[in-house]
Specification:
homodimer; 331 residues; UDP-N-acetylmuramoyl-L-alanine:D-glutamate ligase; 8-stranded mixed β-sheet; 5-stranded mixed β-sheet; 13 helices
Chain lengths: 331, 331
């Protein structure tokens, strides 16, 4: 019986606010260059005001993945919290435009919609300032069980482990997914996050809470506390479910109980901005997987989507991934 | 019961003649720059005379591997044909110096000892001119069965398939090895060679003639007629024996019936000359394998030996591989 959604995701609902600035702007506003800094609401407002003429684009890791899935022609739903404010409307409008189901109730009060204020200096360096805002309010009450049972895969953004209520909601969502036979995928999001929740994540992996693991090389090495990629590969093989381990220009390694695939990175003329590479890889991979494609093909779809997004600024595809996949004989 | 030799190899017995020249020399002598050209005896003599002040170093692919094995502290024997001439004595002396058993009867007449005349231009480019000479005379009569049964592994240089008598001798040697329980390893040597003998090699692989396959990425893609590394990986997994697939700076992939290991290349400060990387990889790998090391460790030993040889001119180690391995906790 086919399900209406390929993937339902739970993730951070963030609007990226991108503006080109000069180095003096960074100095004046005390912005640490080239890194991501968490900021509070007051500072978010100040910076937002200072970044005049900024572009606002719906973002967030798992939401970006859903945008990629939609670009491939996949169907999905997203759960994540915004407040009913201007950025919240921007985020919701972005999801609607992509044909993605997004019905999480907007908060009427509390912290405002999350934003990531990105100051791009002329040489192309991005300095990111993230305000988590309304995401910290996502809770079990925001789960829509039907959207979990209506999807082949529930995709969970690891970043949410830093938001206690959202983490609790994810645990509940996994429970629901288990009951209704929806596969559960998790993305590790960040090497430090993988380290912070190492014990919990590895215990959950071994207990069978997840069917699919997405992680880049740094994240999976951090998760399993090893400096050796081969060591983590053996650990993941022993786990026995599906793991998609991305390795930047080295491509990716896809592992299941019986299979190991080594997939090359797709060619890119010029790498402009690697933000979103992992998000789009997951999009391509999940698109293939929910269409019962063999794992090597899923990996190649992931590589194709990642190659598109790193060849321009921004974390969502600018070219139809469906057309690109068709041109490569992958769709 | 332990055997006196770790490895017995059959390969080309070649002396490398290396000299630094200028571009005018290449033009005057009609040497194609940067490639390997097969030449005849007359031309070999002419060029050898012209390359005044050249260094003569025992070489040959499998012989280089045995030099690496010796540098690691391994024991071995080598079979390959030289003529009783000055270069033949140089080759034999090189093997003796390394403590390797080398008793193949020297030819008293016929083609002279093989040499590879290497003209190195100031920018470091090598233009190679190979005269196969006495190697073409290696035949079944030159096999010493005891040296095959006395070794854990019989290592065969694929290049010999271009020498009909030597190829026939290799087939006989494999038969002997099968009878006495010596494992058989082959190295593919060259992508064009793998293509020329594709049907024979793949039939032999599938018939169980080889226990261990060494090939670089180009060679294994050529052997299995595929552009996709993952495709050849699956083919090799299906084969079910041990394969060591080298990928230059991407490291190597080691495969057996149950195992897949992805090993990083060992760090190199500056790549000077990649000649001999595959030969030394095989040396490290076989050293580990004959000491019953796990496959990932064998791969790391191979990577270590390859890293040493590409950091200087020439195809044999200049630093004790045993000491390097000890420093890396691998010996």
């Amino acid at each position: 019986m086919s399900k209406p959604f390929d993937v339902t995701a739970i993730g951070s609902a963030i609007v990226d606010v991108i503006a080109t600035v000069d180095d003096r702007f960074l100095l004046e506003h005390g912005i640490a260059k080239g890194v991501m800094t968490l900021i509070d609401e007051y500072r978010a407002q100040t910076l937002h005001k200072a970044l005049s003429g900024a572009r606002e684009i719906a973002g967030g890791s798992a939401a970006n993945t859903m945008a990629g899935l939609a670009s491939l022609g996949g169907k999905g739903a997203f759960m994540g919290k915004v407040r009913r404010d201007r950025l919240g409307q921007t985020f919701a409008a972005g999801m609607a435009e992509l044909g993605l189901r997004y019905t999480t109730r907007m908060a009427e009060d509390g912290p405002s919609t999350a934003c990531c204020l990105i100051a791009v200096t002329p040489e192309g360096e991005r300095s990111m300032n993230t305000y988590l805002g309304a995401n910290l309010e996502f809770s079990r009450k925001d789960l829509t069980d039907a959207e979990i049972s209506d999807a082949q895969v529930l995709y969970i953004e690891g970043y949410l482990w830093d938001a206690p209520l959202a983490r609790e909601a994810c645990l509940k969502a996994i429970e629901v997914a288990r009951k209704v036979g929806t596969k559960v995928a998790i993305t590790m999001s960040d090497p430090f996050l993988a380290a912070r929740y190492r014990e919990e994540f590895t215990a959950m992996l071994d207990a069978g809470a997840f069917d699919i693991l997405f992680a880049n090389e740094d994240e999976v090495k951090s998760l399993f506390e090893s400096e050796s990629f081969d060591h983590v590969l053996q650990r993941v093989r022993g786990w026995g479910r599906i793991a998609a381990l991305t390795r930047s220009e080295k491509g990716c390694v896809i592992v299941s109980a019986d299979e190991v695939h080594i997939i090359e990175a797709a060619p890119v003329v010029r790498v402009v901005d690697t933000t979103g590479a992992g998000d789009q890889f997951a999009a391509g991979f999940l698109y293939g997987l929910t269409r019962k494609q063999p794992l090597d093909r899923c990996g190649r779809l992931g590589a194709l989507a990642a190659a598109e997004v790193i060849s321009h600024l921004g974390a969502r595809p600018e070219t139809s991934l469906r057309k690109l996949a068709a041109a490569s004989g992958l769709a």
